[in-house]
From TrEMBL:
Cited InterPro entries: Restrct_endonuc-II-like, Restrct_endonuc_IV_Mrr, tRNA_endonuc-like_dom_sf, Type_IV_Methyl-Rstrct_Enzyme
Organism expressing this protein natively: Methylorubrum extorquens (strain ATCC 14718 / DSM 1338 / JCM 2805 / NCIMB 9133 / AM1)
GO biological process, one term: DNA restriction-modification system
Domain Restriction endonuclease type IV Mrr: 144-246
PANTHER family tied to this protein: MRR RESTRICTION SYSTEM PROTEIN, SLL1429 PROTEIN
Protein name: Restriction endonuclease type IV Mrr domain-containing protein
GO molecular function: DNA binding; restriction endodeoxyribonuclease activity
High-level lineage: Bacteria, Pseudomonadati, Pseudomonadota, Alphaproteobacteria, Hyphomicrobiales
Amino acid sequence: MMSGRSTIATRLFWTVVLGGGAAIRYGAPALAATGAACLAILLHRLDRPRRFRALVRRISRRHAATLALRRRQERFLDAYGNTIEDGWLREREYFVERTVLPLVEERGFSDYAEPRFEEMVEIVERVACAHELPDEMETPEDGIAYERYCAELLGEAGWDARPTGASGDQGCDVIAEKAGLRLIVQCKRYGRPVGNAAVQEVAAATLHWSGDMAAVVSNAGFTPAARKLAGTTGVLLLHHDDLSTLAPARRAGRRVLAAGR
């Protein structure tokens, strides 16, 4: 693909060639028009970095709610009071690579992909920080209360949801049914990312409770191991903010769950 520098050189070259030919025939007016055209091309080139940043912001703002939620999920305080955000840093780069870069290249900024990668990441960070989410402190800290809270959020989405209680749940904290589909949920009110043990437990609980689908719901994020296991077992990894819009859907001939408004 032709670089931005070679493109502007080509445009200027042909503008001068064609304008010069016109100036020979039409004189000063054509020469002035040629100069104005060259100036417009140069100004457009100088404005290119601003247009690039504006494009990245527009793309990021389309996903602002999801980015803000993922930022909340993937950052936590460790036992020493340090903010651990490795998961969020990986998420930012993943978003830029998979979502931003293809659109940036499509709009003619492919030459910016590598030298301005960190600038794109910084824009994503600012967009995620600027989007307001519900106050996390509103969620119950007690485990049993958090299960009831999750059941209430599912109820807002039209699910017939009920907590199973503290004993005999076999890894299932909430059972929810809608449109003939049974959802088995394990709830984790954590101060750190949830590991793959929760995924294993809810997958087993789905068999025990004859569920159609399974999900682990948490206020925190999930470890890479949990995400990997969830991908192979079909367990959904959700933030509780997802529950009030969760709806059953069909895809490829089988039932799945999808967030819908």
